[in-house]
Amino acid sequence: MNPRVIKYGLTIKTLCLALFIFSMTGSIAQQGAIGGEIRKIYARIGTISLSGNKITRDQIILREIVFRPGEYMRIDSLDSLMDRSRENLMNTSLFNFVDIDKNFPDSDSLRVNISVKVTERWYIWPTPILKLSDRNFNVWWQTKDFSRLSYGFNIDWRNFRGRKESLLLRLQWGYNRVIQLHYLAPYLNRKKTLGMSFDFGYLRQRETAYETMFNKQEFFKETDGYARKDYYAYGQFLIRRNIYNTHQLELRYDRHHFSDSLFTSVKWQF
Prior knowledge:
Elements: H1 3-41, E1 42-51, H2 58-62, E2 72-74, H3 75-91, E3 95-103, E4 111-120, E5 124-132, H4 137-143, E6 149-160, E7 165-174, E8 177-185, E9 194-205, E10 207-213, E11 216-221, E12 228-242, E13 245-258, H5 260-265
Parallel strand pairs: 1-4
Antiparallel strand pairs: 1-2, 3-4, 5-6, 6-7, 7-8, 8-9, 9-12, 10-11, 12-13
């Protein structure tokens, strides 16, 4: 066989192989460029990690986040949903600061991981009570009668048990006496769509206003006992199927009792 024919045959095969490799390289580069462009536009939610919640349960935080692991979405839509989730968490009044960030652990994947960092508030607030039974301090200062003072304390416990529950206890003694207990459990089921609350109160007042004469209130004082007694109790059933809508069904009982002396000693004019 002619050596020139063999030489030309090898040259043609080498040229075809080079063209094939070049075309494959260009196709792979084009696919990589397209994949990079897709990664710039779309993403799939990977993991959602939480930090800083020493008291608050994870499910309470995840309830306010408007996206879930495994969802596909555009990057710009994800940024908007992250801002909305941060606003939802701040609106719970459980945190001082909320930071939500995203990161791509793998440059060749559409997966994006979300990190949520919260700074919790102080949840237990005991406050003392010291109230004047007179209209203002100047009126009380004229007599300096310490028996007309009411005193006690409030305990306001927010995020009770780390479940966004609220517990309020108020005890007041002295001239006017108050007992109040309030409890709120916003989530009763696993889906966190049902909740309940109840409140009970008992108030006793030695004086009560019964009329206004020439822009001045007239008070009746019971010398022996209390001029007015109030009882109330109510329960609420809460329905929150989504983040932005809450429905309430309330059942309430009120009772007001006035001293018999108020009706016999006061001259009523109708």
